[in-house]
Amino acid sequence: MAACGVLVPKEKATGQRAAIVMAGVVNAFMHSLPFRVDVGVVEGQQVYRNGKADANGLLKVAAVSGAALGGIMFRATKVKFPLPREWKGGAPKGAHQARVLDDVGWEYEFDGPKRPPKIVRVPDGVDVVGPDPGVHWKEIVDAIGLALWGYGK
Fold first, then answer.
1. 118 forms bridges with which residues in the sheet?
2. How far is the C-alpha of 15 from the C-alpha of 22, rounded, in Å?
3. Quick one: pLDDT band at residue 133, thresholds 50, 70, 90?
4. Do 5 and 136 form a contact (C-beta atoms < 8 A)?
5. Which of 7, 15, 68 has its CA nearest to residue 43?
6. Among 6, 2, 1, CA closest to 134
7. Which stretches within the chain are classed as H helix?
8. How far is CA 101 from the centre of its chain?
9. What pTM was computed for the model?
10. Distance between CA 28 and CA 131 in Å, rounded?
11. What backbone phi and psi angles, to 5 degrees, belong to 126?
12. Where in the chain does DSSP place strands (E)?
């Protein structure tokens, strides 16, 4: 059985509090699983010298990533913590997500490499569990891509 997902805390926290809240959410989720996880993958963060991202914002995301990593450590047989370029290369987000959707056979509409693909239909037998997928499709597709990368697709 393969599963991947996006955890969204009920509490809307920011800064260091967000890392603490996410650590609790991941810990509770991992304790709720009735099985051991073969491979746990959490995306690491990196500030790129000529990148457009706000470095302080990335530090906050990195703290949350570290909290998530800590939450899966006790329950996963193998843990991976790749930087974005390690698992998706240098492709624009939309282009990479289109490749992920091709890999899993999902139907989507593509409006260029810099825009996320629009999911047209989720295949029969696939359950999307968790937060409203309409709001979190970008994160869900990234989670699928990370899982595929983690298993060595």
1. 109
2. 11
3. low
4. no
5. 68
6. 6
7. 15-32, 55-72, 84-88, 93-104, 133-150
8. 14
9. 0.82
10. 16
11. -100, 120
12. 37-41, 76-80, 107-109, 118-121
